[in-house]
Sequence to fold (459 residues):
Amino acid sequence: MQAVANPAAPAAASAAALAAPDPGALLAWYDRHRRRLPWRAAPGRRQDPYRVFLSEIMLQQTTVVTVAPYYENFLRRWPTVAALAAAPLEEVLSAWAGLGYYARARNLHACARAVVEHHGGQFPSEEAALLALPGIGPYTAAAIAAIAFERRAAPVDGNWERVVSRLFAVEEALPKARPRLRALALTLLPAARYGDFAQAMMDLGATICTPRKPACALCPWQGPCSAHAGGAPERYPVKAAKSARPTRQGVAFLAVRADGAVLVRSRPPKGLLGGMSEVPSTPWEPGGVIHPAAHAPVEASWTALNATVTHVFSHFALELQVWRAELPASQPAPAGHRWVVPQGFEAEAFPSVMRKVLAHASPAPARKDYVCVNEPLRSRIVVPASRTSGSKQEMTTMGSTMDKAKGMGNEAMGNIKQGVGKATGSERLQAEGKVQELKGEAQQAKGEIKESVKKAGDL
Fold:
């Protein structure tokens, strides 16, 4: 009988023959190529535990480019753990708005208060004591212990998992493989410089041992890497098949007074988006509720806008239809609600999904008009529904507007890129992020304008 080949055999066979990874080689690489990040101390300087704590909480499920401006804003407002503990939770949530995973903000504040109340404003240095703090899990406890206090600890995040799984060609799929990956990670630790080693592993995974197209030729551990020896580094880490993310639907009630104020409320302190500000809505359920109007916050003439807000949470996708009502300036807010003028939006802790809803709070066009708004370029095109056909002259005008918008977007991105070349540190990170954001918005605006042109021709 013919033997069946085992695809993991080359990597497994090479693992036994390869030398053990040398932590000194990784530390030498890190000394030459370490990333300069706002929360990292200069070489040879001790890390501030508060800064390590703040950055590690923010970096959970979030990129460095996104976190950098939030981190620096928090440090300006609350430079110490005592200052953060004394801040009202509402202000912390507002400063966090847009960063996502909002339970982290509540835990951040609760942890700061616990450090002040139970530890005299000083973070404990041992993993076990850190784990007892609100919102501190095994990874964050290990990261603070290693980076801030030079304790022997392995803060195994996604970068560590990827590096370790490739070094040892671990065939077991995530998430079940995590205990084994953590045990293997502990075997890699050096005799000293635990903080530098932890950050070196993070940098190696983020810049060299990347999920796709890893730069194996530049890796200090190319020699002892089993996955590289087997010729399939991108195969690792092995991951279990993901189940489909369900979708929920709802209706957001955008009540706008004559003075421009919008009706909002605060979500319950516990649960999804706990304590954040929101536009009133129906419950979010698969298929939506049967009678949305029964959930309206006030009696009014509600108009369903030709707009659906979509947002993806970690465990479900959301589709919100937007209903709008115009109300007099004298309209009182119902119990548990409040009116907020547009100038006060920034002070509210609106999550990203609600900021998308609020984008429809600007003065409404006549019903059944098609509206294309390119917010970054402050341009607006309205095609009246009373038209029965689009003239060539009008179509040409709209086409010219599209070309102009595209040119303005290219010019804006060029200016930002030029600024990136002159910027340093976090300014560069923030500017590079803005370039990507503007690219996306320009593409979206281009699509919206094209759609308006098409509808103008169809009317």
Summary: Residues 170 and 177 are 8 Å apart (CA to CA). The mean pLDDT is 82. DSSP finds 16 helices and eight strands in the chain. Strands lie at 247-257, 262-266, 277-278, 303-312, 317-327, 337-340, 370-374, 379-383.
